[in-house]
């Protein structure tokens, strides 16, 4: 059995260095396939406002290790603090003081790149934690997503550049006609 250490490298690095291992070992082949379709996710956690700092730290570390072991990259972790909830959230189990309903919660965002299989593993590990009231995974969009779109009709940046070129072309013939009239 071969153990894979959680090293953060790009998928092209795997392809160049370990190419001979990928063809011979099914573990490396599955690792290579999982790194090819990396998706940028935002995991928004709503935790109990009474959760201890060490519990939340171990939760975030556990999620980070799951992502890295799955070949992903954790980009950022953000604590939004304790905020009022839109309605009472019910925990799976009552805490040591008997509280089961919460009017306030701690919001934490974890931004990471990973395969969909890794995202499901992260969801499963979070759902086992009793201090988490709700979790939401979002496929985050960035400006670079629009740049990679192949359909020019749906790409706002290409459309903007085409409009600017058309405006410049409309201005040039008017200047050309005036110059031709002077000659």
Describe this protein's structure.
- By secondary structure, this protein is an alpha+beta fold.
- The protein has seven helices and four strands; from the N terminus they run αααβαββαβαα.
- The protein has a four-stranded antiparallel β-sheet.
- Helix 4 (53-69) packs antiparallel against helix 5 (116-127).
- The protein starts with 10 loop residues before the first helix and ends with a helix.
- 15% of the residues are buried.
- The model is unreliable at 1-24 (pLDDT under 50).
Q: How would a crystallographer describe the biggest sheet? A: 4 strands, antiparallel
Low-pLDDT parts are 1-24
Strand order of the largest sheet: 2-3-1-4
Mean pLDDT: 77
Distance between the termini: 84 Å
* Helical/strand content category: alpha+beta
**Would you list the SSEs in sequence order as H and E?**
HHHEHEEHEHH
Total helices: the number is 7
What is the helix content?
Answer: 40-55%
Strand content: 25-35%
Radius of gyration: 25 Å
| Strand tally | 4
**Shape assignment:** elongated
């Amino acid at each position: 059995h071969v153990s894979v250490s959680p090293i953060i490298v790009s998928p092209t690095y795997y392809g160049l260095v370990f190419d001979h291992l990928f063809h011979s070992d099914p573990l490396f082949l599955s690792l290579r396939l999982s790194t090819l379709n990396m998706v940028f996710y935002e995991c928004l956690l709503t935790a109990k406002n009474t959760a201890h700092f060490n519990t939340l730290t171990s939760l975030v570390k556990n999620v980070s290790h799951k992502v890295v072991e799955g070949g992903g990259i954790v980009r950022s972790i953000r604590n939004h603090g304790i905020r009022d909830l839109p309605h009472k959230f019910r925990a799976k189990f009552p805490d040591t003081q008997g509280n089961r309903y919460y009017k306030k919660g701690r919001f934490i965002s974890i931004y990471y790149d990973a395969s969909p299989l890794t995202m499901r593993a992260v969801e499963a590990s979070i759902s086992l934690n009793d201090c988490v009231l709700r979790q939401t995974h979002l496929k985050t969009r960035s400006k670079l997503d629009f740049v990679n779109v192949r359909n020019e009709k749906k790409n706002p940046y290409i459309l903007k550049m085409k409009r600017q070129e058309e405006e410049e072309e409309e201005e040039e013939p008017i200047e050309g006609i005036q110059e031709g009239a002077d000659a």
